[in-house]
Amino acid sequence: MSDLKNYKMVINGDWVDSDSGETFESLNPFTARPWALIPKGSKADVDAAVEAAWEAGRPGSEWHSMTASSRGALIQKLGNALLSAADQLAEIEVLDNGKLIAEMSVQCKYLAQWYQYFGGLADKIEGAVIPIDKPSTFNYTVWEPLGVVACIVPWNSPLLLLAWKLAPALAAGNTVVIKPSEYTSASTLEFMTIVEEVGFPRGVINVVTGFGTEAGMPLVEHEKVSKVAFTGSDITGSHIYQAAAKHMKHVTMELGGKSPNLVFADADIDNAVKGVVSGIFAATGQTCIAGSRLLVDERIHDEFVEKLVALAATAKMGDPMSFGTEVGPVTNLPQYKKILDYIDIGKEEGAEAVLGGVKATRPECGDGWFVEPTIFTGVKNQMRIAQEEIFGPVLSVIPFSDDEEAIHTANDIIYGLAAGVWTTDLRRAMVMAERLEAGTVWINTYRAVSYMSPFGGYKKSGIGRESGQEMIKEYLQQKCVWISTATEVPNPFVLR
Ligand code: NAD
Predict the structure, then answer these.
(1) How far apart are CA 449 and CA 447, in angstroms?
(2) CATH number of the domain encompassing residue 355
(3) What does the pLDDT look like over 180-209, one tens digit per residue?
(4) Is residue 282 assigned to a domain?
(5) pTM for the whole thing?
(6) Ligand 1 pocket: which of 219, 258, 288, 455 to mutate (most atoms <8 Å of CB)?
(7) What are the C-alpha distances in Å from 482 to residues 129, 282, 478?
(8) Which residue has its alpha carbon closest to ligand 1 atom 43?
(9) What is the pLDDT of residues 37-49, one digit of tens each?
(10) Do residues 146 and 475 touch, judged by C-beta distance below 8 A?
């Protein structure tokens, strides 16, 4: 008898095994050992979940009949319940994902804000009456839900990235099928116990666990799915975008990045050092917004690198469940190998690892998948370690000689998710904010996000935005209604 925790997924309000009965193991990155069994969903499970979601959203259903105010209140109730369950959810994220308890205990409380904010927005979605240019005609618009939304989530911040999709999708009146990452499904399944307690109608929120091609793709291709809200790599995003196009679906794509952090000679150097460390070593560099390219004025390059190495070298590695730990393990074995491969590539390309550059063998890291915080100097922007997303604690340092070169290097990349600028010169800050090709520009700060502020990518970093009021429209479609008050229908052969 296995002592692994046995999870079930949720279809139409029921906790179920996969149709095939198959499961797969979820591993704890700190111990590199399995701790849970997850149902291995496939097309049959996806079909059942989409059918349940479709039925739950049809006219006459409990969900469809709710007023926008009651729907919003229910979503806000979920937010309140999440606040109470935040500590328990944080522990699951640490166990399953290797994220730091110090960060998760704050993040799991904060993510409740997405449900509060979008719950509050549910009854503020208003159409318009248009003073139309036709006599005896009344013209108005209404916003309607899209239908069934597929939420496909990656492993690096499972519950936060789910909240960015689920809260607005529900507020807009859609129903949902969630496909969490195969590496980190447990927290979403724990989250569903809270959804159940809060009392959403059956079928409004479903979860199918499993792998990308077996469970994710049938979901994308299902004819009753109207929208795919995806966060993940640009390669997977491209496959999904093509499949969605074939079936004419709406999409939001939150993809990868290789964000530049620009440090100018006039910057407050100590603050900039902290900002660069936070950009690349927080969350073990496994964030889409990782500031993985440090562009630094050549006049302060040596001093800056020295201070950066000194601070990064103090990072405490070890058990992510300990509040004192600052750099935790890599979430999964393939990603761990990928990071170490990129470190080898960097060395072969001629860059110099002035910090780290090896896997971590500190005793406090145990059997976990740890990589030493790594800083490469002597990097050219065309090297692979400067152009490709590593998604780990590996920083490429590239000097620049003037502002033009800084902007050119920053933008000379396929991605455009985020950028950081460290300067005390307001004019320079504003010019950089204008000219950097990125969906988010942070000036004298880094790695700040909010439910109120739109987030998303330029270029290959994505399509559409998450968070902020306006993005609710990404989950709605507009209908226009024409009413004639004329007593007679005019010439039928002429456009009115
Ligand atoms: P991934 O693309 O491998 O997987 C993401 C999700 O897609 C998983 O649930 C996976 O099972 C599913 N999937 C994989 N192949 C699929 C297919 N063919 N059809 C349907 N679904 C499929 O990404 P990952 O490795 O889990 O996450 C890391 C990536 O996510 C990085 O590139 C990172 O930059 C990106 N990311 C982006 C943001 C953002 O908001 N822009 C945030 C976090 C992570």
Answers:
(1) 7
(2) 3.40.309.10
(3) 999 999 999 999 999 999 999 999 999 999
(4) yes
(5) 0.97
(6) 288
(7) 10, 54, 13
(8) 288
(9) 999 999 999 999 9
(10) yes
